[in-house]
């Protein structure tokens, strides 16, 4: 499988490490129902067969987080963008970027 | 049938860095690797949001345009390589302290870290460089695809490297010093069939 890194170009998946679902937003730990929301966030994950958005870290290249649209059945990749650009496009700091506070 | 009774790695211990000399097939020379000493090397990371101001300052200080992609640019003895968005490698065979030069010129616009002793620099020349690299690379390094001035931070034989093509016939490769022995084992074994020379006169 080859991932089109927006900076480096198309690279073998072995250059990346996988984080997981890029559609989730980390809950606010200060919220009154934070324990329940964290339980959902940590344990109740979907496992979609088909189109999916995922975080991949380009460890052996530009060391950037990349948001990849991948089909989990075919491994076909529909697109990839740098996390920093994905966040800018989302328009707020809660744009599901790894490591970001909610 | 090929003679498998001896192998160039037989005399090369795992934990020792290969010494200068000829390896593999005698009488031919497909690849020469020259260890380049005395380069001053630094990483340059733009402070958030200061990319344009940094590009301007670098233009004034080095006479080089900061590449916005995985590219190498050259001016005299100085080289800049794009390694990531907002991050570059600067090399100089002229300045004794490129990190100090950059720090004085760029002030707070970038984080600058000296890397001179962190990496080993190899210049690869010869008609079989691309064939040799192809044995360990995951990207297309065909000379018709990977053109002079192009750069890549990638893996070679499972080892992280930064590689660029300086000119038509010269490829330069940076590898973390602790991986020098392993990377040279790869070069020795992969270029042995073409004749390989390791040269310390750089």
UniProtKB/TrEMBL annotation, chain A:
InterPro entries according to UniProt: SoxD (IPR006279), SoxD_sf (IPR038561)
EC numbers, comma separated: 1.5.3.1
Alphabetically ordered keywords of this record: Oxidoreductase
GO BP term, pick one: tetrahydrofolate metabolic process
Keyword Manganese: no
Keyword Oxidoreductase: yes
Molecular function terms from GO: sarcosine oxidase activity
Source species, domain of life: Bacteria
Protein name: Sarcosine oxidase subunit delta
From TrEMBL, chain B:
Keyword DNA repair: no
Keyword Ion transport listed: no
Keyword annotations from UniProtKB, A to Z: Oxidoreductase
InterPro entries: SoxG, TrmE/GcvT-like
GO molecular function: sarcosine oxidase activity
Group of enzyme by EC: oxidoreductase
EC number: 1.5.3.1
Domain of life: Bacteria
Name of a matching Pfam family: SoxG
Name of this protein: Sarcosine oxidase subunit gamma
């Amino acid at each position: 499988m080859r991932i089109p890194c927006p900076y480096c170009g198309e690279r073998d998946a072995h250059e990346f490490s996988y984080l997981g679902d890029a559609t989730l937003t980390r809950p606010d730990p200060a919220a009154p129902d934070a324990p329940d929301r964290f339980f959902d966030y940590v344990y109740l994950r979907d496992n979609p067969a088909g189109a999916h958005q995922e975080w991949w870290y380009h460890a052996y290249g530009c060391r950037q987080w990349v948001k990849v649209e991948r089909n989990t059945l075919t491994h076909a990749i529909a697109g990839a963008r740098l996390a920093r650009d994905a966040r800018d496009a989302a328009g707020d700091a809660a744009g599901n970027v790894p490591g970001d506070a909610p | 049938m090929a003679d498998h009774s001896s192998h160039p790695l037989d005399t090369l211990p795992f934990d020792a860095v290969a010494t200068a000399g000829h390896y593999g097939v005698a009488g031919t020379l497909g690849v020469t690797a020259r260890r380049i000493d005395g380069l001053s090397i630094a990483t340059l990371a733009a402070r958030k949001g200061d990319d344009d101001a940094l590009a301007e300052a670098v233009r004034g200080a080095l006479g080089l345009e900061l590449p916005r992609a995985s590219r190498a640019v050259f001016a005299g003895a100085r080289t800049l390589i794009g390694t990531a968005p907002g991050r570059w490698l600067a090399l100089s065979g002229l300045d004794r302290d490129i990190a100090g030069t950059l720090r004085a010129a760029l002030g707070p616009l970038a984080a600058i870290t000296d890397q001179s002793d962190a990496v080993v620099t190899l210049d690869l020349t010869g008609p079989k460089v691309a064939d040799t690299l192809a044995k360990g690379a995951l990207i297309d390094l065909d000379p018709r695809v990977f053109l002079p001035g192009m750069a890549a931070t990638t893996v070679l034989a499972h080892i992280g490297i930064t590689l660029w093509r300086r000119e038509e016939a010269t490829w330069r490769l940076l590898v973390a010093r602790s991986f020098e022995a392993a990377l040279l084992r790869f070069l020795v074994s992969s270029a042995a069939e073409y004749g390989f020379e390791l040269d310390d006169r750089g």
